[in-house]
Amino acid sequence: MTKNIKLGIKLNILLAIIFLSITLAISFILSRILENYAEEIVADKASLLIETMNSVRQYTSSQIQPELSSRLETEQFFLPQTVPAYSAREIFENLRSNEKYSQFFYKEATLNPTNLRDKADKFETEIVESFRRDVGSREGKMADFQKYGFRTIPGGELFYIARPLAVNKESCLRCHSLPEKAPPSQIATYGKDTGFGWKLNEIVGAQIISVPASEVVRQARDLRWLVIGRVLIFLVLGIIILNIFLKLTITDPINKMSSFSKNLSTGDFSVEFQHESNDEIGILARSLNRLKVSLKMAMEMIENKPPKS
Length: 309
Prior knowledge:
Number of helices: 7
Largest sheet: 4 strands, antiparallel
Strand content: 5-15%
Transmembrane segments: 12-30, 225-246
Helix content: 55-70%
Strand order of the largest sheet: 1-4-3-2
Distance between the termini: 55 Å
CATH architecture of the largest domain: 2-Layer Sandwich
Pfam family, one: HAMP
Mean pLDDT: 81
GO biological process, one term: signal transduction
Organism: Waterburya agarophytonicola KI4
Protein name: DUF3365 domain-containing protein
């Protein structure tokens, strides 16, 4: 099948295969690089925000809670400002009031929360349960256990970071062990049915922060196609330039030599093949010219040879 294909077409097919392979390789490598880069960008945002929320929690626990805890026994309604999770959530909701951060989400998803707005949904429940299994199956500090990844919601794609929430202080059990031990204001505000039965060192929830990733991912994909498009343009230009070079230095001289040889085969010795370069084509051209001279001499010798008597 390939016997009837011209040399230029064969070279173009070979170049097309090589350049296509290069393009696919570049596309794959670039995709991986840009995906990792996009993930790093959104992960940095999420990590910064979750550390900020932890600072808020620490501040509430160390400075606000001691000042207000005594009032929980006397107030008619519970003071949620004493709860680190409440403070962090409220501050984050204030941040979300800015249009720029409206698609950022923070939640301390809990399996059995006092405040039902912290109730874990199906996705969050799976994360909490996986933390419980991981902590139970391997050793390590609670801070070492972290999950992250992408999550698709109706509004777009989110990147989330989740960390386990455990009961690590005896003081937490004041409000979460038994209803009889809880402050009266808590019972009056939230009732006796939720937020109890917690145990020391038990993982009760997950601290989850989600940041929008759709825009970053889209920009990474646009950049990938832009780079691939530029690469294809340069590859096509390379093919064109290489074709011109091959035509001028190889295929055209070969075609001329073919025509020259055809004329020689018919006895036309008036033509002269000129090729000034010293490359392989030039060597072949000089050989053909010597062959022409040799054939001409041989023909003349035959013609001038006297006939036998």
